[in-house]
Amino acid sequence: MRDRATLEIPAGLEEEYYQINPDILQSFNKLRPPLNIYRFLENVSRITPYYKVGDRLSKEQAQELADLVAEGVIFVSRADHAVYVKHISYQLDLVLLDKHLTESEIADIFQIALTRRMEAFFDQPVRLVYDKVREDVLVLTEYVWEDFHRTRALAKRLHTTHSLANHAVNCGLLGLHLFLAGQSDGFRDQKNARHILDRSLLGIFLHDLGMTRVPAMIRDKTKPLLPDEMQKIKGHTMAGYEMLTRIDIKFSEMERCVSEHHERLDCSGYPQKIGVGTISELGLLTGVVDSFCAMITKRPYAPAMEQLAAAKKLYEDAKRYPADVVKRLIALLASGK
């Protein structure tokens, strides 16, 4: 059997096709793969159809396909990107194995997978579902741990419409970049650095957990809130904190994100009205991404703001928001222009 590393793939081929590895193949339905499959014929240096979606492979063909994948001659078309991305999003750890995906494609996969996971958790915020969220977030931190620059593509995969799940994912992906961009060069070498990153990112994703206790009719109300309705909104931070306890999550990083993301430097926030020197850096960062991600999405009661305009508005409100975090945000947005 030919070593796939010695196979001569024509230049430009992988711009049009993904090369499938055995781990990816095993995630497919064995007899009915979910998308069209192509074989590379080395003797003529071209791609030819091998399997058409909707057909059924025999056991013998399935074994032949596995052998060909091991040889490195099986591909799927990047034209089927949407199908491939959705498929891998159900087994997120596959992004760590497929070396042929681009950073942009991987960012798509994380956004889809984590949004679906957060929808399930907010619908049923119990320990069993949280554990699934944690598994996927740890895949994300494993992915960026190899190269912190990977957070840039992720931070640009933000939903444009608001929902609890969309907001959580927007905050998580953006917060991941801002968190790592604020660390020193020696962060990886610090004791428990990886655990700190894991727990901090989980906290950012779950910061609005308490909003699941606020009726949707209040969350999505288009008219000004009544005093009692506003109290229910403001109560979501402590409701989330209590929910962490019930789910048996006791990490301080997560507690800070949930309880402090509406506190402000000038003590004008809630629920504790604490200020500079008392709010944790993680709480301040979560407050920035929470406000920014709310501002840039279309909500029932407000249109979406342009991203750079939203960031500048936060920067101008330096009495309430930390300038260093907002500067990191503006730098990210400016780099994409």
Automatic annotation (TrEMBL):
Transmembrane annotation, as ranges: none
Residues in HD-GYP domain copies: 138-337
Residues in the signal sequence: none
Pfam families: HD_5
CDD domains in the cross-refs: HDc
Top-level taxonomic group: Bacteria
InterPro entries, per the entry: HD/PDEase_dom, HD_GYP_dom
PANTHER family linked to this entry: CYCLIC DI-GMP PHOSPHODIESTERASE PA4108, CYCLIC DI-GMP PHOSPHODIESTERASE PA4108-RELATED
Protein name as it appears in the record: HD-GYP domain-containing protein
Species in which this protein is naturally found: Solidesulfovibrio magneticus (strain ATCC 700980 / DSM 13731 / RS-1) (Desulfovibrio magneticus)
